[in-house]
Specification:
membrane; transmembrane helix; 344 residues; HTTM-like domain-containing protein; mainly alpha; HTTM-like; transmembrane
Amino acid sequence: MNGKFSQRLAAERERVKRSAADFVRSWDAFWFLPRHVETLAILRILTGAMLLYTHLVLATDLGSFLGVDAWINNDTSRALHDGRLGEATAAWSYLWSIDSPAWIAAHHVLVILASASFMVGFLTRLSGPLAWWFQLMIVHRLLGSLFGLDQILTYCVMYLAFTPCGAVFSVDAWLRRRVLGRRREPIWKGWTWLLPADQPSVAINIATRLLQLHLCVIYLFGGLAKARGQMWWDGTALWYAVGNYEYQSWDATFIAAYPGVFTALTHVTLLWEIFYCALVWPRWTRPLTLAIAVGVHAGIGFGLGMATFGIMMIAANFVFISPEWIRRWRGPTAERLEGPSQTA
């Protein structure tokens, strides 16, 4: 009996060791396996375009948002963060100290240039962090005038800014071919960092995982917050959304004739949002999960008058598309490694 028990114990120990080793290997691969950049490059273009759009819209009435005569002036904005008018935060913005309209306008020109450079992938190693920094300063200044689009943009730019997302589909890729060509050693070694090569990188994978997990957290807590409301359980939440004339882009009140439809869509939306963080990872449930995401956010965008938010949320979901699929679409061009190797 003691011999059989010892054998079983040894077998169980071996099984636990193998399971632990498999977990460590999977964890290491999840975070640190080098990944190609195509997915992040497309997300850079979409995020940069939306970032540029928001700053251009802000420029049309800049004085109402920034400066001494803004709807929420500098002192009030500072008070919203330091605890005098609400809960204290660690946020800070140098824009609280700028009152001159000329300086504010000059600053906003730099903001627009940084956003445009990031979008087209021009010196992305520099324009990315700069675009993120400007965005952070502006959202800290504009507390009270923000909505979901600003938060989504800020977190996307934050993760993208510190990756070689300008390696493809960018001005940087074109410059790399012109500046480095087929040289084995560039005249200035900094070119290999400033103009990153189209090669797999650990930094790309880490940023991808952080973007994915951040999106999962957003959906999870958004779904749990919805679950606290009775309308999401009795199936009327969708009806109250489409029937609200304040947000309505097109008249969808005809859905009232089909209560079973909007009740089902309400419940599907709630369950999808809560369980998104589990359903988006398995390959066999991912396509349906992403398809529902497109449907939900397209509905929000074109039915509730929040097109920019809907488009940006669809773009954020794009991070779950494999770069290998995009490389197959690119064809033989993607297989050529240009210039010296660079690991970010």
